[in-house]
Specification:
This protein is an all-alpha fold. The chain is built from eleven helices and no strands. Helix 3 runs parallel beside helix 5, helix 7 packs antiparallel against helix 8 and helix 8 packs antiparallel against helix 9. The N and C termini lie far apart (about 65 Å).
Length: about 250
């Protein structure tokens, strides 16, 4: 009978978490604060291993859980370090979350890194957050249902537009681009606004409690969530993705 892999835990032996050897190695590397390209390759190997689809999905789920735990520990440990070191940690975990398919954590990490750079390097022409970076992040947030934060990011993209060299020689094209960004910002605001939250709350209540009396006036209920939702709660609004795609295709009509 083959010997059991060195360092295997009972959790690995019974298959409860579908933790692969590569994922165990990756966890060990993180515990030693090794955040580099080699470690990301180990994670990628772990995520692609497994005997079947179910095992791979279980490994991916475990990787997400572990990354959230280890990222919180890493950021806490890096809090007293210089900004450059903290940004390196943020960049590593943003890429790791991307590999693991954790969109929420990836965007949250990227946003923290952007805010950190904005606060520290706003006057540095090489390290400040550019218009293009804010715009890319805003579009990613909008596409993934984080409407409140997308609106803020679009606002930052507009603020930094004056420093962008893109289309600087074509004022008409640049104005059109600004109008497009404002259109997307207004779309993000409308989706994260009070009416959107109330509509989503009504749909949620109908799904969860179909036996509620027909006499219940859903329109008079106060929504549980504030109109300007916190970033982490944005994940719950993904049921509006079809509407979003449709409205983006007709941006000029917004």
């Amino acid at each position: 009978m083959a010997a059991e892999p060195r360092g295997a835990t009972a959790h690995e032996r019974d298959g409860g978490g579908a933790i692969t050897d590569a994922l165990s190695l990756f966890a060990s590397l993180l515990s030693r604060r090794r955040f580099g390209d080699d470690e990301l390759r180990v994670l990628e190997a772990a995520l692609s291993s497994g005997g079947d689809v179910a095992a791979m999905l279980a490994t991916r789920s475990e990787a997400r859980r572990m990354l959230r735990e280890r990222s919180a520990e890493a950021f806490a440990a890096a809090a007293a370090e210089e900004v450059g070191a903290r940004l390196s940690v943020a960049d590593f975990f943003a890429r790791a979350f991307t590999l693991a398919g954790d969109v929420e954590s990836c965007l949250a990490t990227r946003y923290e890194a952007l805010l950190l750079r904005e606060a520290k390097y706003s006057d540095d022409p090489h390290l400040h957050v550019s218009h293009e970076e804010w715009l890319t992040f805003a579009q990613d947030s909008l596409d993934n249902g984080f409407y409140a934060i997308a609106s803020k990011a679009f606002a930052n993209a507009l603020v930094h537009n004056h420093s962008s060299t893109l289309d600087s020689t074509n004022p008409i094209l640049k104005k059109s681009k600004i109008n497009d960004i404002r259109g997307l910002q207004n779309l993000a605001k409308s989706l994260s606004g009070q009416r959107s939250v109330q509509a989503q709350s009504a749909v949620y209540m109908k799904r969860k409690a179909p036996s509620i009396s027909q006499e219940c006036n859903l329109h008079s209920e106060k929504p549980k969530l504030p109109g300007n939702m916190m970033f982490r709660l944005g994940i719950k609004t993904r049921n509006t993705q079809k509407l979003l795609c449709s409205r983006k295709r007709n941006l000029e009509d917004v």
